[in-house]
Structures
1.
Amino acid sequence: MSAATESRRPALPRDRRSLVVRIVVTIVVGAILLYIPQYFPRFRIEGQFNVIITYAIAALGLNLLTGFNGQISVGHGAFFGVGAYTTAILVADHDWSYPATFVAGAVLTFVLGLLVGLPALRIRGLYLALVTLALATVFPLIITRFSDVTGGTQGKRVPRVRAPEWSGLQDDQWKYYVLLGFAVVAFVLVRNLVRSRVGRSLIAIRDNETAAEVLGVNLSLYKVVTFGVSAMLAGVAGCLSVLNEPFVNAEKYNINLSITLLVAVVVGGAATILGPAFGAFFVVFLPEWLPKSQPELSPVLFGGALILLMIVAPGGFLGLMRQLTGWAKRRLRPPSSDPPTSGTEEALASA
Amino acid sequence: MATTRWFKVGAASITLALFVAACGGGRNDESSSGGGGGASATTAPGGGFSISTADCAGYEATKGVTDDSIKLGSSFPQSGLYSAFAEISKGYEAYFKYVNDQGGVNGKKIEIITKDDQYDSGKTKSNTQELTQKDGVFAMYNVVGTASNLAIRDDLGEECIPNLYAATGSQLMGNPAKYPWLIGSIPTYATESAIFADYLKTNKPDAKVAILAQNDDLGVGYTTSFKKAIEGTGITVVKEEKYNSTDPDVKSQITTLSSSGADTALIAATALKCPQALNSIKETGWSPLTYISATCTSNTVVGLAPDANVGVLSSIYLKDPSDPEWANDPAMQEFQTLGAKYGLSPDELKNGIVGYGWTMGALLVNTLKQAGTITRQSVMQAAYSLKNQVVGLLLPGISINTDGVKDPYPIEQMQIGKYGVNGPYWDLQGQVVSFEGKTGSYAPNE
C-alpha cells in the first residue's frame, strides 16, 4: 500500500487493518506449513523439516531462558537428549506408548531443569555458561557409561510410529503434522507467557535484577522455574525427535547439539517469539545448501556463513527483517507523515 | 506497531516460501504405503532360497536400474577416527571400472554413490535415507560397521531394499529368516574367535586371556563366542575391559589388562584402536600372545604399530598383496595389473583392505550375473544362494557358499596368520580352518 493512498484515504481504522493483515498472514503461513509434507519427499520431511520443528521447540525453550531471562545455557542439548532417551527407553524396553513418554520426559526434564537452575542463582554470565557446558559434555559420557540401559555408542532402536489408517497419510506426513501441532501449542503458550505479567518479570530480571527485586519480583522463584520450563521444552522436543527418528545413540546428543540450539536462538533473533523457528530452519538447511564435495570444509563454511550473518544482522533474522521493513518504510513514506515510532515496539525490538 | 510487525512476519513467510521452493521438492508417492512389517523368507521346495515381497512397504523391484546402469549406494567413514575403512571403496570402485569397461553386467554399468558417516550410526541412517529416497539407489552395498548396519536394517527390510555384503563380521548379519534383505560379507567375529580358540587349544592349552572389547555388538560378538569356544578347555578369561568407539584411545584399558596376569590378549577392536592397543601393550612392557580382529589386518591399520605388531596373530582369508608368496599367483597378478590400470596407486595395490574391496566387487558382480533378470528380489535371492564362488583374492581352499536360512554366512573359512615375522605381511600358519555352514550353530543371535 503506497504511502500516498494511506495518508489520503485511511479505509479502515488502524487496528482493524492490522487485524486483516494478521489474518491474511496467518492463513498464508499456515497454508505453507500445512502444504510442506504434501510437496516434499519423505527424506526431506523426516530428515529436515521434522528436525527443524523439534529444534524450533527446543530453541524456543532456550530462548525463554537466554533471550528473555538472560541466563545462558550451553547445555540444552543434554535436556534434549534426556527427553529423547526417556522416550526411547520407555517405548523400546518398557512398552510404553509414545504420548505417555512425552509426559514422563516433560516431568523429568522439568525437575532436572530446576536442579540445574538452583546453582544458577549464584553463578551467572560466563560461569553459568561453563557449568551448563559441563552438562553438555558429560551427557554422552553418562550414556556410554550406562550402555546396558541406553545402548551406548551402538545406539538403541525404537519401534516406529505408524500413521493411523483413517488419516490417509504417509508415516512421515503424519509425524510432521503431529510435531507441528505440538510446536504450535508450544509457541502460543510461550507467546502468552512472555506477554503476561510473568514475561515482564522475566525481562525485568534480565535487564536489571536489583530493580526487579525492588519492584517485588521473586528472583529465585522466577529464575529457577524459568530454567525448569526451558529445560522441559527442550526435553519434549527430544521426545518428539524420537517420534520422528526412532533411533538414539550417544553421539546424537553431544555438545554440537547444544551449540546448534544456541546458534538457532541467536540467528533467529534472541528474545523474539518466532526467532527460534527461523533459526532452526537456518541451522538445519544451511549445511544442506553448502557444497558437499569437501566434507571437511563444511563446518568451516558453516562457521563463515554464521560470522557473515552476525555482521549483517546482529539482531538475528527477525532483527534483520525489522531493519529492512523500517528502511523500506522510511523510503516509501514522506518524512512529514511519518508518525513517531512508538517506544514500546522499539524497546521490544532491541530486547 | 502491530501492522509493522505483521508486515514483517509476512515478509518472513515469503522468504520461507522462497527457501521452500529453493530446496527443490516434488513429492511422488505413487507406491502406496504398505504399512506391513518386513518380508518373510522361506526355502522353496526346489531348494533355492526365496524371499517374499508380499509384505513390503511399496516394493519397487527395479528402482535404480535402467537399461544400461545399476545405481548402488554406500555409507562408511571417510573422515574421522575410522576413515581407514574408506580404502575398501577404492578396491571395489576399481573393480567396477574394470567391469564397466568390459560392458558392465548384462550390459548395465555399475554406479556407486558413497557418503561419509564417520562411523556414527545416526549419520548412516540419514545417509541411507537420502540414498534410497533422493538418489533412488537399487541397493545399499558394503556399508561399514555393525552398529551402522543394524541402524538401517529395519528401514531397508520394510521397504525390501537389499543391503548387500555389509562390511561387518557381526553374526547378526546372518538372520535371513527375520531379515532377508541383509547379508554380511566377512567371516563372523564368532568364526574368528572359534579359530583363535582352536589355535590356543593346540599351541597354548592353558592360556590366561585378557580381552579388550569395543563396547557394542562387535565386542560382544567376539567376547561371547570366544567364551563359548573355550568351554571345557584349560583356557580361561582372566580380565575384560571395554572401550567406546568414540574414545580417543585405549591406554587405560590396556594398563588394567596388563596387570591382570594374563599371558594372552584378544583385541576385539577395530580400525585405529588395534594399533593403539598394540602400541600400549608394548609401552606397558607386557608381552602377551596377541590376537587382533581380522578387521585390522590391513597394512594401513596394523602398520601404525611398528615393532609392536611383530608376531601378532589374526585370521586371514585373503591373499595379502604385500606377501611375496603370491607374486606369481594369477588372481594376485590380475589384481595388480587391472588395479593399476583402473586407478589404484602402488600403495593401494599393496594394501590388504583394498584387496578386500576388490574381492567384494567381484562377489557383487557375480551375484548380479547369477540373479539373471535384475530385481531387488532376484539379487537378494542370488546372494543367499551362492555356490562355490572363488572370487578376487580369496585364499586357496576358500570359497563362498550361502544357502538361505541354512547357511547365511558367505565366508566361513580362515587361516591363522602371524604378522611381521619376515616382512610387513601376514605369514600363514597351519591349515585353512573351515566352519562352512556351521557358524549359525555356535554364534549367538537374536
2.
Amino acid sequence: MGVIEETFAGHEVARASLDNCVKCTICETVCPVAKANPLFTGPKYNGPQAERFRDGASVDHSLQWCDFCGICTLNCPQGVKIAELNEQAATRMKEQNGFPLRDRIIPETNLEGMFLSPVAPVANWALGLRPLRVVIEKVIKIHRDAPMPTAHTETLAKWLKHRTKTDIKPTKGPVVFFQGCAGGYFETETSKKSIEVLEHLGYEVFVPKQSCCGLAKQSNGLFKGATKDILNLCDNLLKFGNELPVVSSSGSCIGMVKHEAHEVIGVDDPRLANVSVRSRDFCEFLMEEYRAGRLDASEFKEIDLTVPYHQPCQVKSQGMGFPAVQLMELIPGVKVIESNEPCCGIAGTYGLKAERYDTAQKIGKGVFEHMQNYNEGVGVCDTETCRWQIAKSSGVKIVHPVWLLHHALGLSDNLLK
Amino acid sequence: MRTMDADVVVIGGGATGAGVVRDVAMRGFSAVLLDKADLGQGTTGRYHGLLHSGGRYVVSDPESATECAEENEIVTRIHADAVEKTGGLFVVTPDDPMEFSDQWTEGATKSKVPWTEISTAEALRREPRLNPGIKRAFAVHDGTVDGWQMVWGAAHSAEDHGAKVLTYTAVTEIIREGDQVTAVIAHDLKNDEQVTITTRFVINTAGPWAGRIADLVGCHDVEVVPGRGIMIAMNHRLVNTVVNRCIYPADGDILVPVHTVSIIGTTDVKADDPQRLAIPRNEVQQMFDSGEALIPGFREARAVHAWAGARPLFKDKRVAATDTRHMSRGMSILDHGTRDGVQGIVSIIGGKLTTYRLMAKNVVDVMCDQLGESRPCTTADEAVPGSADGHTYVITHRLRENEKARATHLEVKPKATDVAVAAKAGRTPSHAAIDDQIICECELMSRKMLTDLLAEQPDATLDDLRRQLRLGMGPCQGGFCSMRATGVALEDGGIDIERATGLLRLFLKNRWIGLWPILYGEQVRQTALDDWIFQGTFDVEHLPVPESEVEL
C-alpha cells in the first residue's frame, strides 16, 4: 500500500497515464539531464517504467538528479505524465529519506525578500563576497558560483504606494496583476514595466496584496507547504472577483497556478480551478488581445535589434507556443532568435545546489552559448531565476520581453534600464 | 542412446511434479523428473498467481480452505523468494447479495482461515481504485506466488538432494515386466536422443496429460477433463492486494497483483485438448465486465496479455462433465495396482498450486506404503535454494537493485589493473559501467541475468528464459527487448545466426497468441509500433528461412 496514493490525489491521474507509454524513448532523447549526467537514469526509466515497480517504501535514488523541467511530458506523443510521475516519486523519496535543511530554506522566497530588501545594499554586497559564499556552500550547500538575485530597497509594494498615479483613463477592462515573489522583491523593474505597459495600453491594473505561489516548495518536494501557499494565493487573487484575467510576468509562477499545482501535487480545489483557467502569462495575454483586435501594434516604435531568446522549460510546459517571440516581433525592427534548447539548468532552484551545480551548467551550456553568439547587448527570457542563471553564466544582460515593449511604447528612453 | 537408473521417475514438470521429485529426493530416493517441455509450461505457469489464504473455499469446500490456510504459511516460508505477502480482501460489491458474506464469515471461522472484517472506508483507503459502492470487506492472508520461480526453486532443491531434472524430454514408453513397471523410455527432443531409465516406481504428475501417460502403461480410462480458464494481465498494478469478490466461487471474481501486473481471472470451460486452448472473445469481454465490478474504469485500463490454462480435473461421474468448476477440487490419487493391476505406478491428478507441497507429500506417502519404506516427509522443514534468508519477494526488488548500484557507483573505486593501464596510456581510469545494461526495460531484466541463465541453459528458447526472467512480459511484449535478447544470445550465448533468427520468430509468434484476443485501446498502439519495428526495420517475415524452424 503506497503512501503516495494517500498523500497526493494527482498521483492517481499520473499513474493511470503510464498505460499510454509505448516505450518509444522520445522522452529520453530530449531529456537535458540525462545528456548532462549519466547518473540520471532518464525520464522513461524513472517514470512509466519504474512506476510499475513502486509500492510501499521508496527505493529510488537516481531521481535526485531530475530537475523537473517537464520537457519529457511536453514531448511525449502519447500523453504520459512523465515529469509528474517523477516529481511525485522524488517527493516520496525525500519524505522517506529526509529533506536537507537547504531544501527547506531556499523555497522561503517571500521571507527572503522581506529580510533582504530593507538591507538591500548590504545584502547585495555580502552575497558578492567570495569568502562568504564559500562559507555558505560549506554550511548549507548552495554553490559558491550559483547566481544570486539582486535585492532592492524599493519593493514593488513600496513603489505602488509612492508612485505618481497614471492619468491615462482605462479604455479596456480591468486585469489583476500577479507579480510573484521575485517580481515583488528582486525583479521589481520587470513588474513595474509590466504594470506601466498594461496601463498604457488602456487596462485598469489591480495589484492585490499577494503571497508566494508555492512553486519552489513544490519543486523541492514540500507538497504540503506548497498546497497551503497556492490556495492562500488563490484567496488573495479572488478578492478581485472571479472573472478578471490574472496576468503575470513571472513566467514560472503563473505555470504553477495554471497547471502544476493541479497536475503535480494534485490540488483539487474550486478556488484553484477558478483562478487557473483565467491565468495568463504576460505575453500570452497580449497576444490573445492582439488576435482579438484589441491591441494596436502600430503604436510600437521601431527598435533595430536582433535578440536571442530562451523560452524557459516551465513556460514551455504551459503548452502555449511562443507568445513572447510573436509579441516581440510585432515591434518593427525586432528579430528574435529562439534558443531551441530545453532548459538553462537552474530549473527554479536546482542549479543553486552545490552537488548539482556542474550538471546544471552542462544542461544550460547551449542556452549560454546561444545568448553569447547572437546578442547585440541584450538577451531575453521570461522567468526570473532563468535570467539570473543565464546572465551569470553567459555574461549577457538578460531581460523580460516586457522591457522591449516598454521601450517600444516610448515609456523608457533606455531599453536596458 | 543414454541409460540412467533411478528409484523413482516423476513424469510431468509442473508444480506437482517438481514437488514430488523434491519430496522423494529429500526422503533419500534417487529420482529423475521428466517433462516434454519446459518446467511450469503447462497449467502451473498459466494461472493467476494467487497464493490462496483459503478464503475462496470457506463455503464451497471447507476442507480445501483449511489446507490452503496451512500450506500458504508453509509455501511462504520455503519459497520466500517466489512469494509476495500482498494480503487479500474479500469485498461485497453493489451487485452481490449480502447474505453470502454471513455464510462466508461462519465458514472462515470454522475452517480456520484467518480473517478480520474491516470498514469499507479502510478497504478503500488500502485500495483507492476499488468500487466505492462496496458494502462489506474482509482482510485475509492471500498472497501471490510466481509459479515458475516456485517450480524452479523446488527443482533446484531436488537437484541439491541428488535428483536429475530433464526438460524437453518426452516420455514415449513405459516398460512393464509382468505387472511391474521397470523402466521409462523417453526422447530427448533437443538432442534427438533416446533415454532409458530403469526404475522401480513411476509417479505420474502430468496434469491434463495424465490420462495419456497412464495409457502408455495400459491403465486406460483415466479421464482427465481439462477445465480451460482464461486470464488477462493488466499493464500495471491496479491493486496492491489480492481482491476477491465475496460470492460463491464464480468466473472473473479475483484480481491478483503479481510482479508488475494485475491479473483478472478466470473462466472455467471444458476443453478437448490441453495442448490447444482457445481464448474466446466472449470470455475476454466477460473478464472486463467482472473487472469493472471490482474496479470502476477497468475497461479503460490497458491489458497487455491474455492466456489460457487447463485445470486437470479427474472426472467424477457424479457431476456433469461440462461443469468443471464443481468437480472435485481435491486431488485424486490413483493407485494403478488396485485399479488396473499394474504395480509401481501411481497417478496424482488435480489440486491447487497453493497445496502443491501437500499433494506431493500425500502421493509420496502412498508410494512409500507400497514400497514398504518408512521415510518421513521433510519438505516443510527446509527452504529451497534462494529462500533461506526468509525474505519474501517485494515488487520494488529489481528497481531497488538498479537504483542501489547507481547510488553507490561513485563509491566504487576503479580496478587496480584499470588504473595501471590508464596510467600507462596517460589518461584517467574510467569507472566500471554504472550498472548492468537493461535488456528488457519493462521488466528491468539486465544483460547479466540473461547471459548467466543462457550459460546455465544454452539450448533454452527465449520463452524458456522469459519464464524465469520475465523477458518480454511487460507492456511492450517483446517489442524492444526480444531483438536485444536475440543479439545478446548470438554474441555471448554461442548460438548461430540461423538459430538466432528462429528464436526471435518463435518468441514473436508465441507473444502474438496472447495479444490477438486483447487488441483494443493502448495495446493496439503498442502492437502497431512493435509490428512496424519488426516488419519495417527487421523485415522479420522475409529473413532467410532456416532448414528447420526452431520449435523447442
